[in-house]
Design goal:
The complex is a heterodimer of chains A (about 120) and B (about 160). Chain A has about 120 residues and is mainly alpha-helical. Chain A has one domain. Chain A contains six helices and two strands; from the N terminus they run H-E-E-H-H-H-H-H. Chain A has a two-stranded antiparallel ribbon. In chain B, a hairpin with a 3-residue loop joins strand 2 and strand 3. Chain B has five helices and four strands, in the order αααβαββαβ. Chain B has two domains: about 50 residues, Arc Repressor Mutant, subunit A (Orthogonal Bundle), CATH 1.10.10.10; about 70 residues, Alpha-Beta Plaits (2-Layer Sandwich). Chain B has a four-stranded antiparallel sheet. The two termini of chain B are about 25 Å apart. Classes of the chains: A mainly alpha (about 120), B alpha+beta (about 160).
């Protein structure tokens, strides 16, 4: 029981950690066009969702970049799946921004609650 | 007469030889000598001197990549940097094999312009996202994929007398 709680806590801290520059998420608006915005943690990613060009959100969401980074780098499979489901709903622009933000903010709130 | 860095000044014969080599670097010293009306030994001596001083850097083949069957895409990447880091960024880009040419430019901002080659648009994007965007000092990147080439000529030295 104690070990299970320890592993859960370890996973939570891993998801909330700050990753290296090489593993950060870089926001592009199209192939090769980097916006200058990047995120090295879930918190920073959540904040950048609110400021990057909405075109960048559409570009990355429909390529599957968000779920890939969240799942493979931050290692949060649950959040990656939620983002993946959003892909099928064809949102765009500010509606898409609000949807992504609310999903990530809710997950971040859950993970931060234990502190 | 010598120019800076001890490089000898070139006379009109040297320039004519260079012009001939730029047309066809595989022609013999005799052929160049006949065309210019000078001895092949003169051509040989002058070419050796220009190689020694690095005026002639190397002999290479100009390949039509498309005809050679290589399916690749070429792009021009404009990199906006923090001025303090630009030199370091340019030097780093020079070491990357996918990047063929690197220049700096001063317009409104300090820019680095680079020619990059990739297998596909996806590879190009991955390369820029993982190898260029993370470099310290880069503020943004604009990339234009080249869709059609209309002209590509190397810079040539023309003899002063020739118009």
């Amino acid at each position: 029981m104690e070990r299970k709680r320890f592993l859960k806590e370890e996973a939570r801290l891993r998801i909330l950690r700050t990753v290296s520059r090489e593993k950060s998420f870089y926001f592009f608006t199209s192939i090769g066009n980097y916006t200058g915005e990047s995120a090295s943690s879930l918190k920073e990613f959540m904040d950048k969702i609110n400021v990057v060009n909405a075109k960048s959100l559409e570009f990355h969401l429909y390529r599957g970049d968000f779920e890939k980074w969240i799942g493979e780098v931050l290692e949060d499979r649950k959040l990656a799946e939620e983002i993946c489901e959003l892909r099928g709903l064809n949102y765009s622009g500010e509606t898409l921004r609000n949807k992504i933000y609310s999903i990530i903010a809710e997950r971040h709130r859950q993970l931060s609650r234990s502190f | 007469m010598k120019l800076k860095n001890d490089v000898p000044a070139l006379d009109s014969t040297d320039l004519k030889i260079l012009e001939n080599l730029q047309e066809d670097s595989r022609q013999t010293y005799t052929a160049i000598g006949e065309r210019l009306g000078i001895a092949h030994s003169t051509v040989y001596e002058r070419i050796r001197r220009m190689e020694k001083y690095g005026i002639i850097k190397k002999y290479t083949a100009v390949i039509d990549v498309e005809k050679a069957g290589a399916k690749r895409i070429m792009a021009i990447m404009t990199v906006y940097t923090d001025p303090k880091e630009s030199e370091k960024v340019a030097e780093t880009l020079c070491r990357v094999p996918e990047i063929l040419e690197v220049y700096t430019s001063l317009s409104e901002e300090l820019l680095i312009i680079a020619k990059v080659i990739a297998e596909s648009q996806e590879d190009l994007h991955d390369f820029i996202a993982t190898s260029v965007a993370p470099l310290p000092g880069i503020s943004r990147i604009r990339t234009s994929i080249i869709t059609k080439k209309f002209k590509e000529n190397p810079l040539r030295i023309f003899n002063e007398g020739k118009k």
